[in-house]
Amino acid sequence: MSEADLAVDSGQSLLDLGDSRRAHQFITEGQALLPDSRAKTRGVFLAYEAASYLQLKEPERAAHAAEEALALSRRIGAPRCERLLQGLVPDFQPYRAADGVPAFLALTAA
């Protein structure tokens, strides 16, 4: 397991436990450590980042990360990442008026 994977997995665990601030720090750190050659993993990490922003009630940042992850996953064919993002759609619903959220929701419906 690489340092990037360890950082993001730690962040995901913290996210599951509700510690979204620390989770986001680990996820961001993991993304910075990830080499460009691991694009599928980058998409998953971006989906985790979107989830952490949603827990922090920062829907604009969440939508940006989610849209980037969705575009990447569709470009490289990463169905796991797309499933993760589809799972976030209900969490975005309360923020339909926030910048970037309508565009992300439209992309997930396409």
Distance between the termini: 35 Å
Helix content: over 70%
CATH second-level architecture: Alpha Horseshoe
Please provide the ordered H/E string of secondary-structure elements: HHHHHH
Q: Give the name of the CATH superfamily.
A: Tetratricopeptide repeat domain
Q: Please name the CATH topology.
A: Serine Threonine Protein Phosphatase 5, Tetratricopeptide repeat
**Uncertain regions spanning at least 5 consecutive residues:** none
| Shape descriptor | globular
Oligomer: single chain
Summed up, the helix count is 6
Could you tell me the number of beta strands?
Answer: 0
Count the domains: 1
Quick overview:
With 110 residues, this protein is mainly α. The chain has helices spanning 3-16, 20-33, 39-55, 59-76, 79-92, 101-109.
Main attributes of the structure:
110 residues, mainly alpha
Structure notes:
- The protein is mainly alpha-helical and 110 residues long.
- It has one domain: Alpha Horseshoe (Serine Threonine Protein Phosphatase 5, Tetratricopeptide repeat).
- The chain has six helices and no strands.
- The termini are far apart.
Task: Give the helix/strand layout.
Blueprint lengths: L2 H14 L3 H14 L5 H17 L3 H18 L2 H14 L8 H9 L1
Helix pairs in contact: 1-2, 1-3, 2-3, 3-4, 3-5, 4-5, 4-6
